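Appendix B, record 7
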Amino acid sequence: MSVHMGSRGRWGTALLTGLLMTCLGATTPTETKTEGGTETRPPHVVKADFLLRFLDYIESPALAQTAPDEAVVMVIGGSDDVLQALQRAAQGRRVGTHPVVCRPVAEGETLERVHLLYLGPGTDLLQHPLVKLAQSLPVVLVTDAPRGDPVGVINFIWTQDRVRFDVSLEAAERVGLKVSSRILQVAHRVVVGSR
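Structure tokens (predicted):
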């Protein structure tokens, strides 16, 4: 069963998303204010910005057990563009007291000490060995799966010429993650399970 966040119409959705993205520290998902007006950002840059913000709004037992000066680790597969944008955006950033480290998926990856795993559109999610592993650990699994139910906790989608995302509360709860209502309010769709 999924819960849609209501039918606000195009302008209502745009207004709500803009207001909530301001609360999350952005303007709108694909636009940045500049002196000359508004600049459109490529989707991979928007995704990198979202990935950096997600961990500020998701409680994780793994993060709670991380020493204050120890890094938050984000592992990226299937999109070199997102990895490069994330590495640039993460310079000097912190999640709470933790510095942020972004790296590509390593050969023989075990997800040990990994807090977020992003598997981009170049990934076969049905066959990738890290999908099942991440679905059993307190790792925020973010994917770019084709439309449908999210494979992980968060799934990026492209709708109305914007990068948006769906959230699976069922997947989050299964691995002990708690998603903030702030993310749920901005989500395109929230999947609550099959009760």
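Remarks on this record: The chain is about 30% helix and 30% strand. The chain has one domain: 2-191.
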